[in-house]
Amino acid sequence: MLFLDRFGEQAQNLGWTDIELFGVHPQMGTIRVDPCGAIMLAGKEAHWMIADRIDFGNTTLPSR
Description:
The protein is α+β, with helices and mostly antiparallel strands. The protein is built from three helices and two strands. It has a two-stranded antiparallel sheet.
């Protein structure tokens, strides 16, 4: 998976969990979006990530 190749180590270092990234509802799958992880909902390639956000090409990096 491209996301894991590009961001796997960074995601782990930033504290992202497998559920936050790849989670799906156990009975409804992706029809229920509230328990879905960021990667499951995006359907796009990730461009960058920080501790509380992953960009999929539609935002700019927040200034800190």
